């Protein structure tokens, strides 16, 4: 027997928290400024922090300088935010460009509206710049980042729940989502007690599962040269193409299909192309997470676990590990941690 249970949406007052008023309420009357803290923004920030921490842990385990991830994030995060916002605005023009519209609202990211495909494009550019500056290989960083990206997106979807946005078609399933009226995404004529598919929850579960899958695969097989990024694109694109198809929010269409569904299919294709091409181009292990000549050494000397190569830059030779005395010894493939 199925017990009817619905998922409530948070009350509107949970969407924004006035820090200034709270400080005054607890006696700090000298604080005269009103500072609004948006739940959506906090979710995005939490996702960024989690992604940076996990990426740093994985990159450091492969011999990178601790916290060099932060140097790359200084480029990747702002480029990703700008790309995500621009993509969202361009694919939802009716929400921002109409007679009497306040064009400044195109910048109000804290009110919601971030497109992951735009964030990926902008973030990739930022990562490329950051990697050029720090000497980290782009593909090494991309692989280290892949599971963290999925976790960051999961946190972002939690922000959609706070904003009561991006929900799916009506449903009578026991986990239907309650949405407050009025809401522009709800078709006219639906009963007040109509429940909707919680697409935010579907994506959270899908993304967290994908992060676990990538982490487990990387422990069992060697996935380098961007292959983990390829798996990420295939995994996310597959799930997003399904969840996007049942969403009710307005979206631009191309050949009768939502633009973001096309984007999801493109992500799957790009992921497959990356895996196929990189598998053919690089049959060996990555020599190091650093580009040639940019390797990092601790103050006490070269770390004995740092992995280098005595061959070419393509990773087609036998990896070697630098010992405490500076000599090198041939290692097995397991020396390069995925």
From TrEMBL:
Extent of Acidic residues compositional bias: 302-315
- Judging by the UniProt lineage, the source's domain of life is Bacteria
Membrane topology per record: Multi-pass membrane protein
Recorded hits in InterPro entries, A to Z, give: Lgt
Write out the ranges of the annotated region (Disordered).
Answer: 288-338
One Pfam family from the record: LGT
Residues reported to bind a 1,2-diacyl-sn-glycero-3-phospho-(1'-sn-glycerol): 157
* Cellular compartments per GO CC: plasma membrane
Which pathway is this protein engaged in? Protein modification; lipoprotein biosynthesis (diacylglyceryl transfer)
Gene Ontology biological-process entries:
lipoprotein biosynthetic process
Output compositional bias ranges, type Polar residues: 325-338
Key words of the record = Cell membrane, Lipoprotein, Membrane, Transferase, Transmembrane, Transmembrane helix
- Please give the start and end residues of each transmembrane region: 37-55, 67-87, 107-131, 200-217, 259-277
Q: Where in the cell is it found?
A: Cell membrane
- Principal subcellular localisation of the protein: membrane
Enzyme class, UniProt record, top EC level: transferase
Gene Ontology MF terms: phosphatidylglycerol-prolipoprotein diacylglyceryl transferase activity
**Enzyme Commission (EC) number:** 2.5.1.145
Q: What does this protein do?
A: Catalyzes the transfer of the diacylglyceryl group from phosphatidylglycerol to the sulfhydryl group of the N-terminal cysteine of a prolipoprotein, the first step in the formation of mature lipoproteins.
Q: Which family is this sequence assigned to?
A: Belongs to the Lgt family.
This one is known as Phosphatidylglycerol--prolipoprotein diacylglyceryl transferase
Organism source for this protein? Answer: Microcella frigidaquae
């Amino acid at each position: 027997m199925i017990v009817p249970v619905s998922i409530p949406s948070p009350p509107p007052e949970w969407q924004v928290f006035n820090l200034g008023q709270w400080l005054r309420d607890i006696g700090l009357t000298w604080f005269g400024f009103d500072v609004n803290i948006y739940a959506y923004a906090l979710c995005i920030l939490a996702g960024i922090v989690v992604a940076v921490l996990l990426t740093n842990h994985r990159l450091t385990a492969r011999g990178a300088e601790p916290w060099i991830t932060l140097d790359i994030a200084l480029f990747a995060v702002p480029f990703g935010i700008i790309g995500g916002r621009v993509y969202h605005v361009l694919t939802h023009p009716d929400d921002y460009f109409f007679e009497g519209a306040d064009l400044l609202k195109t910048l109000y990211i804290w009110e919601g509206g971030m497109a992951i495909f735009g964030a990926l494009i902008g973030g990739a550019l930022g990562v490329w710049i950051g990697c050029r500056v720090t000497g980290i290989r782009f593909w090494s960083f991309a692989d280290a980042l892949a599971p963290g990206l999925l976790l960051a997106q999961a946190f972002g979807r939690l922000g959609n729940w706070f904003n009561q946005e991006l929900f799916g078609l009506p449903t009578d399933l026991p986990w239907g989502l309650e949405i407050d009226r009025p809401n522009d995404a709800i078709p006219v004529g639906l009963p007040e007690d109509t429940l909707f598919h919680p697409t935010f929850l579907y994506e959270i579960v899908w993304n967290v599962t994908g992060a676990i899958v990538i982490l487990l695969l990387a422990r069992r097989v060697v996935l380098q040269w961007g292959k983990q990024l390829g798996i990420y694109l295939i995994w996310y694109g597959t799930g997003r193409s399904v969840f996007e198809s049942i969403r009710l929010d307005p979206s631009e269409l191309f050949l009768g299909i939502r633009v973001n569904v096309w984007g999801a299919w493109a992500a799957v294709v790009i992921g497959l192309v990356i895996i196929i091409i990189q598998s053919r181009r690089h049959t060996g292990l990555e020599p190091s997470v650093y580009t040639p000549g940019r390797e990092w050494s601790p103050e006490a000397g070269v770390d004995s676990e740092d992995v280098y190569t005595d061959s070419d830059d393509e990773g087609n030779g036998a990896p070697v590990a630098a010992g405490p005395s500076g000599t090198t010894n041939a290692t097995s493939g397991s020396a390069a941690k995925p």
